[in-house]
Specification:
This protein is α/β, with parallel strands linked by helices. Among the domains are: 146 residues, Rossmann fold (3-Layer(aba) Sandwich); 98 residues, GMP Synthetase, Chain A, domain 3, CATH 3.30.300.30. Helices cover 30% and strands 24% of the residues. The strands form 6 sheets. It has a 9-stranded mixed β-sheet, sandwiched between helices. A hairpin with a 6-residue loop joins strand 13 and strand 14. Helix 2 packs across helix 4 and helix 5 packs across helix 6. The longest helix is centred in the first third of the chain and has 18 residues. The chain is globular and about 65 Å long.
Length: 535
């Protein structure tokens, strides 16, 4: 394989070969050529083969065909290369809500041989700085409406010097695009050139950058969609996850485009907005988290007998009650799945015909999974242990010592506790670390603790996840106040608003309990397990 990367940062910072997982390419569809660019396969190929006139993306006031998207992406790629000096291998931070311009920017980065670093709209300057510095990001394409936090981060990001804004009132990316042609020769990247640097919260609050190749993007399109989802070119995809989540990138961009289908992109995707948009656009395939399905079920009878035919749940554990409620109201059986940013997308799932209440499913074609003990040995059926998985994708952390914790003996250890029943179905039990999963968002306990400790009235604190019927888990903080501070409802509100102002708002503690002290070891280490289970 001949790498196209002139900037070799990604290849230079891959984990050692011995620390990477074993990769499996058993399916015929996973035997990729040495040179591969996912933009060629997902976009250019459709136009070249006469499908450029098919609808690709819809949003408020926008209907782009595949040819439209290609032209926009080509113009942006020209701007990146000719105006902003991008060379293959450079990292490009992308910052926007879900909209067609973000997709065009993503494909432009792929076409130019760059590496996309997509960031969620809710992230604050501190979090953006961590990602930009760790990934040595050099370029950024940002929605002007989200410029403030990025601009606050820039002084601490000395390598991030090339920034262009779109959707702004003043001349920005669109003006530069107008000066550039709608043609661009997509870079002939190697199939193992990194194209995505996806950040995920670590349990320490220090984000981990996961590195994925062009072949990884195509691998997830070859495994779960054709075998479990079974989409067609006439499907209209819709959903709530941000495209910065690999769950959203797959469900709303990669998977529909792999079959030349279309997607509806919503900048605001509350359960109410989502349901209205399903009806307005005649959507057929829905991606969202269990939390959203529970809320939508209250008025989802309007969807029964309509266009919607496939509903996918991921991002957090799917309660059996939510599955039953959605089926009762809509007549549609939910497709459950577990994925991970480290694995790029779903690796255990079941289609509607094989779904079982309380079970996630089985390892999908292309992947193998098992439940192991602390020594890495398989445990008997119906025994709780650690989930281990292998497939065509796997964990490659960017220069991170935590690689050795995630990958052991060739297996990816996802941090989830599971059991396998006698029929081979995997049943989720809990997380095995201090990660909180709330409404599909990963939240690290120490990061919330750090935010709380910045408040002058907080002496110490401990943060855990507690079960919640609506969100799966919520963030709960146990707080010891400084002498003289009053543990009042007003203080609860003040601390919650303070956290929202310092980290992404979804991370704030929805419950706060004041304590006179916190359980600690003799060496002073916080014992979160005693907060979870005082007994």
């Amino acid at each position: 394989m001949i790498s196209a990367h002139i900037d070799t940062f990604a290849r230079d910072h891959l984990p050692a070969a011995a620390d990477q997982p074993e990769f499996l390419f058993d399916l015929p569809a996973l035997r990729f050529p040495a040179q591969l660019n996912c933009a060629t396969e997902l976009l250019d190929r459709h136009v070249a083969e006469g499908r450029g006139g098919r609808l690709c993306l819809q949003a408020e006031g926008i209907r782009w065909t595949y040819a439209d998207l290609q032209a926009q992406a080509n113009r942006i790629a020209n701007v990146l290369v000719n105006d902003l000096g991008l060379v293959p291998g450079n990292r490009v931070l992308l910052r926007s809500a879900n909209n067609p311009m973000l997709v065009a920017c993503w494909f432009a980065v792929m076409k130019a041989g760059g590496i996309a670093v997509a960031t969620m709209p809710l992230l604050r300057a501190k979090e953006l700085t961590q990602m930009a510095v760790k990934g040595e990001v050099t370029h950024a394409l940002c929605d002007a409406r989200l410029a403030e936090e990025l601009q606050l981060a820039l002084p601490a990001c000395p390598l991030l010097t090339q920034v262009s804004y779109f959707n702004g009132k003043e001349a920005g990316l669109e003006a530069a695009m107008a000066r550039r042609p709608a043609t661009f020769d997509t870079v002939a990247t190697a199939s193992d050139d990194t194209c995505i640097l996806a950040f995920t919260s670590g349990t320490t609050g220090e984000p981990k950058g996961t590195m994925h190749y062009h072949r990884d993007v195509m691998a997830i399109c070859a495994c779960w969609p054709p075998h479990i989802l079974k989409p067609t070119a006439d499907d209209i995809f819709i959903g709530s996850p941000p495209l910065a989540f690999t769950f959203g990138l797959g469900g709303l961009v990669l998977f529909p485009m792999s079959v030349c289908a279309s997607a509806v992109l919503l900048e605001k995707a509350t359960p109410g907005d989502l349901q209205d948009a399903i009806l307005d656009h005649g959507a057929t395939v829905l991606f969202t988290a269990p939390t959203s399905y529970r809320v939508m079920a209250q008025r989802a009878a309007a969807l029964r007998g309509g266009t919607l035919r496939k509903c996918v749940s991921a991002g957090e554990a799917l309660p059996a009650a939510t599955r039953a409620l959605w089926r009762e109201v809509t007549g549609i059986e939910l497709i459950d799945g577990i994925g991970a940013t480290e694995m790029l997308h779903i690796f255990i799932s079941a289609d509607e015909a094989h779904a079982r209440p309380g079970a996630t499913g089985k390892a999908i074609p292309g992947y193998v999974a098992r439940v192991v003990d602390d020594a890495g040995e398989p445990v008997p059926a119906n025994t709780v242990g650690k989930l281990a998985v292998k497939g065509p994708t796997g964990c490659r952390y960017l220069a991170d010592a935590r690689q050795k914790q995630y990958v052991k003996n060739g297996w990816n250890l996802t941090g989830d506790a599971y059991l396998v029943d006698d029929d081979g179905y995997f049943h989720y039990q809990s997380r095995t670390d201090d990660m909180i999963i709330s409404s599909g968002y990963n939240i690290a306990s120490p990061e919330v603790e750090d935010a709380l400790l910045l408040h002058p009235q907080v002496a110490e604190c401990g943060v855990i996840g507690v079960a919640d019927a609506e969100r799966g888990q919520i963030v709960k903080a146990y707080v010891v106040l400084q002498p003289g501070a009053a543990p009042t409802p007003a203080m609860v509100t003040e601390l919650q608003e303070f956290v929202k102002a310092n980290v992404a708002p979804y991370k704030y503690p929805r419950a706060i309990e004041f304590r006179s002290s916190l359980p600690r070891t003799e060496t002073g280490k916080l014992q979160r397990f005693r907060l979870r289970d005082p007994a």
